[in-house]
C-alpha cells in the first residue's frame, strides 16, 4: 500500500484542465456551496477538508486551467467571478496585499459572508487589521475573521493532528453563526471572540513566539550565567591565580554540573514565592478582593513555565552526574589516588562520614528528581484534564512543597559541614550551595508561618469572603454549622 503522504494532494483531473462541475453524489443534499478565492497551499488543504465534510466546493482562480489539477475531483475550479457568483459563503485565501485586486467581485459578493484567513508578516498592535480593511473594501458583505490560526497541514490531516480551536469574530451574528456551524462540521471547535474589532488580536496569535516562556527562559539563562561565573571564579580561577594550578578542564562538565542544580533549586523556589506573596498580601489587606500588583499577577501566571525550566535543569544535572565517572580526568584521579595509597602504605582510606554523606545526598536527590518528574507530567494538559481540582492542587502544591523540601535537603546533605570550613571560602566567596539555599529556606520558612493556626485560619476566612474593613464575622464550616455564618453586621 503506497504511503498516503506520497500521493498528490489531489487525484487526477479531467480533460485538458477544463472546469469540472460539482458532483452531487459526494455532497450532502442542501449543503451550502462554499467558495474559495485563491489557489495556494492553504486553499488546497481547505478544499480537501471541506469536500471530506460533505460540502460543495467551488474554487476561484485567475488561471483555472493551470490550477485545476491541484484540487480534488469533487471541487470545481473556475474563474474568480464565477466562483463568487455560485458560492453562498466565500473564503478569501489570498495575501492581504492582494485584497484590492478583488474589488471587481463586489457585485457578486454583495450580501454574502466572507471569511478572511490571512495573517500579517509581523505583530500589529495599532491596527487596522486585515479583516477590518477587507470589510472596508466590501461594505455590502459580512466579513468573518477565522481559520488563520490553523496550518495547511492541520486542515489536510484533520483536527486530530493540530489544535482543534478556531477563533472567530464578526460584526454580523448570522454570518458568524454560519461559519461556526461549518467549523463544527469540519471537526473543529469554534471560539467566539466577539466583534470584528477582535480580529487584530486573532491575527497576532500565530505570530507570538512563546510569550509565556520569555521571562522564565531569561530568568533561567541569567541564573545559569551567574552561577557558572561564580563557580568558575571559585573552582577554576582561584587555583590558577593562587597556586598556578590549571584546572580549566573542569569548565565543560564539572562546573556546568555544579551550576545546573543551583539553577534548578532556585527556579523551583521561584515557583512558590508568588503564592506566598499573594497569601501575605491578603492577610495584610484583610480581603481577597484587592487586585494584586501587575508584576505579581504576571509572576503567578508563569509558575508552570518556571517549574518546567527547573525540571529541565534537574534532569540535565542527573545526566551530567552519570557522565562524571566516564571522563578521563576522573580515571586519572582514581588511579593517582590508588597509587598514592599503595606508595604511602595506607591501610584504609574509608571515612564513614564521607560515605554516609554521599549515600544520603544521592538517595535524597533521586527522590527529589522523582517528585519533580511527577509535577512535570501532571502539568501536561492531557494529564491535568483527567484529575479534578483537589487532586491537581494536591499534586502541584502539597507535593510541590515536598519536592522543594527534598531538593533543599539534598543540597544540605551535599554541603554537610563545609559551610563552616574557612578553607571553602575561596576569594572570600562562600560555597555555592550556601547562596543557593537562601531562597528555598526562606520559602519553606514562609510556608511554615502560614501553617500557624491563627494565620491559617484567618487566611481561610479571607479566601471564603471575609473582609476586615466590613466587619463580617463568621466561622468556617464544620459538622455543626452547615453554611459557616455566625454574624453579619455593618455590611
UniProtKB/TrEMBL annotation:
<keyword id="KW-0285">Flavoprotein</keyword>
<feature type="transmembrane region" description="Helical">
    <location>
        <begin position="433"/>
        <end position="456"/>
    </location>
</feature>
<keyword id="KW-0812">Transmembrane</keyword>
<keyword id="KW-0274">FAD</keyword>
<dbReference type="GO" id="GO:0046872">
    <property type="term" value="F:metal ion binding"/>
</dbReference>
<keyword id="KW-0560">Oxidoreductase</keyword>
<feature type="transmembrane region" description="Helical">
    <location>
        <begin position="306"/>
        <end position="327"/>
    </location>
</feature>
<dbReference type="GO" id="GO:0006826">
    <property type="term" value="P:iron ion transport"/>
</dbReference>
<dbReference type="InterPro" id="IPR028939">
    <property type="entry name" value="P5C_Rdtase_cat_N"/>
</dbReference>
<dbReference type="InterPro" id="IPR036291">
    <property type="entry name" value="NAD(P)-bd_dom_sf"/>
</dbReference>
<keyword id="KW-0410">Iron transport</keyword>
<dbReference type="InterPro" id="IPR013130">
    <property type="entry name" value="Fe3_Rdtase_TM_dom"/>
</dbReference>
<keyword id="KW-0967">Endosome</keyword>
<dbReference type="GO" id="GO:0010008">
    <property type="term" value="C:endosome membrane"/>
</dbReference>
<dbReference type="InterPro" id="IPR051267">
    <property type="entry name" value="STEAP_metalloreductase"/>
</dbReference>
<feature type="domain" description="Ferric oxidoreductase">
    <location>
        <begin position="262"/>
        <end position="403"/>
    </location>
</feature>
<keyword id="KW-0479">Metal-binding</keyword>
<comment type="similarity">
    <text>Belongs to the STEAP family.</text>
</comment>
<feature type="transmembrane region" description="Helical">
    <location>
        <begin position="207"/>
        <end position="230"/>
    </location>
</feature>
<feature type="transmembrane region" description="Helical">
    <location>
        <begin position="263"/>
        <end position="285"/>
    </location>
</feature>
<dbReference type="GO" id="GO:0052851">
    <property type="term" value="F:ferric-chelate reductase (NADPH) activity"/>
</dbReference>
<feature type="transmembrane region" description="Helical">
    <location>
        <begin position="392"/>
        <end position="413"/>
    </location>
</feature>
<feature type="transmembrane region" description="Helical">
    <location>
        <begin position="360"/>
        <end position="380"/>
    </location>
</feature>
<dbReference type="Pfam" id="PF01794">
    <property type="entry name" value="Ferric_reduct"/>
</dbReference>
<keyword id="KW-0813">Transport</keyword>
<protein>
    <submittedName>
        <fullName>STEAP3 metalloreductase</fullName>
    </submittedName>
</protein>
<feature type="domain" description="Pyrroline-5-carboxylate reductase catalytic N-terminal">
    <location>
        <begin position="34"/>
        <end position="119"/>
    </location>
</feature>
<dbReference type="GO" id="GO:0015677">
    <property type="term" value="P:copper ion import"/>
</dbReference>
<keyword id="KW-0472">Membrane</keyword>
<dbReference type="Pfam" id="PF03807">
    <property type="entry name" value="F420_oxidored"/>
</dbReference>
<keyword id="KW-1133">Transmembrane helix</keyword>
<dbReference type="GO" id="GO:0005886">
    <property type="term" value="C:plasma membrane"/>
</dbReference>
<keyword id="KW-0408">Iron</keyword>
<keyword id="KW-0186">Copper</keyword>
<feature type="region of interest" description="Disordered">
    <location>
        <begin position="1"/>
        <end position="25"/>
    </location>
</feature>
<keyword id="KW-0406">Ion transport</keyword>
<dbReference type="GO" id="GO:0008823">
    <property type="term" value="F:cupric reductase (NADH) activity"/>
</dbReference>
Amino acid at each position: 500500500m503506497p504511503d498516503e503522504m506520497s500521493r498528490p494532494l489531489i487525484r487526477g483531473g479531467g480533460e485538458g484542465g477544463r472546469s469540472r462541475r460539482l458532483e452531487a453524489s459526494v455532497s450532502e443534499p442542501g449543503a451550502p456551496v462554499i467558495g474559495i478565492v485563491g489557489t495556494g497551499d492553504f486553499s488546497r488543504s481547505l478544499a480537501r477538508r471541506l469536500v471530506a465534510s460533505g460540502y460543495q466546493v467551488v474554487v476561484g482562480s485567475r488561471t483555472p486551467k493551470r490550477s485545476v489539477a491541484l484540487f480534488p475531483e469533487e471541487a470545481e475550479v473556475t474563474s474568480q467571478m464565477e466562483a463568487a457568483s455560485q458560492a453562498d459563503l466565500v473564503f478569501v485565501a489570498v495575501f492581504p496585499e492582494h485584497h484590492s485586486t478583488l474589488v471587481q467581485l463586489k457585485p457578486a459578493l454583495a450580501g454574502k459572508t466572507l471569511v478572511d484567513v490571512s495573517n500579517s508578516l509581523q505583530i500589529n498592535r495599532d491596527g487596522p487589521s486585515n479583516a477590518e480593511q477587507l470589510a472596508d473594501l466590501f461594505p455590502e458583505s459580512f466579513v468573518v475573521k477565522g481559520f488563520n490560526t490553523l496550518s495547511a497541514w492541520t486542515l489536510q490531516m484533520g483536527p486530530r493532528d493540530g489544535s482543534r480551536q478556531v477563533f472567530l469574530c464578526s460584526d454580523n451574528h448570522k454570518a458568524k453563526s454560519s461559519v461556526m456551524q461549518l467549523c463544527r462540521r469540519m471537526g473543529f471547535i469554534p471560539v467566539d471572540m466577539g466583534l470584528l474589532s477582535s480580529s487584530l488580536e486573532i491575527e497576532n496569535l500565530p505570530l507570538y513566539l512563546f510569550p509565556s516562556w520569555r521571562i522564565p527562559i531569561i530568568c533561567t539563562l541569567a541564573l545559569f550565567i551567574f552561577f557558572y561565573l561564580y563557580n568558575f571564579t571559585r573552582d577554576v580561577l582561584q587555583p590558577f591565580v593562587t597556586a598556578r594550578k590549571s584546572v580549566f578542564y573542569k569548565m565543560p562538565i564539572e562546573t556546568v554540573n555544579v551550576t545546573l542544580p543551583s539553577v534548578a533549586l532556585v527556579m523551583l523556589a521561584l515557583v512558590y514565592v508568588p503564592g506566598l506573596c499573594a497569601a501575605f498580601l491578603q492577610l495584610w489587606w484583610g480581603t481577597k478582593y484587592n487586585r494584586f500588583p501587575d508584576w505579581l499577577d504576571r509572576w503567578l501566571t508563569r509558575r508552570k513555565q518556571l517549574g518546567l525550566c527547573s525540571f529541565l535543569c534537574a534532569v540535565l544535572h542527573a545526566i551530567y552526574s552519570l557522565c562524571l565517572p566516564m571522563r578521563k580526568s576522573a580515571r586519572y584521579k582514581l588511579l593517582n589516588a590508588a597509587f598514592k595509597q599503595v606508595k604511602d602504605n595506607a591501610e584504609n582510606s574509608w571515612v564513614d562520614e564521607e560515605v554516609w554523606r554521599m549515600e544520603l545526598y544521592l538517595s535524597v536527590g533521586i527522590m527529589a528528581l522523582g517528585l519533580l518528574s511527577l509535577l512535570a507530567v501532571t502539568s501536561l494538559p492531557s494529564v491535568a484534564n483527567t484529575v479534578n481540582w483537589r487532586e491537581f492542587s494536591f499534586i502541584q502544591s502539597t507535593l510541590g512543597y515536598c519536592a522543594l523540601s527534598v531538593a533543599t535537603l539534598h543540597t544540605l546533605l551535599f554541603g554537610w559541614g563545609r559551610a563552616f570550613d574557612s578553607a571553602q571560602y575561596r576569594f572570600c566567596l562562600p560555597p555555592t550551595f550556601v547562596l543557593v539555599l537562601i531562597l528555598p529556606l526562606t520559602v519553606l520558612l514562609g510556608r511554615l508561618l502560614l501553617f500557624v493556626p491563627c494565620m491559617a485560619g484567618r487566611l481561610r476566612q479571607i479566601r471564603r469572603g471575609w473582609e476586615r474593613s466590613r466587619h463580617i464575622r463568621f466561622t468556617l464550616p464544620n459538622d455543626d454549622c452547615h453554611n459557616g455564618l455566625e454574624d453579619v453586621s455593618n455590611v
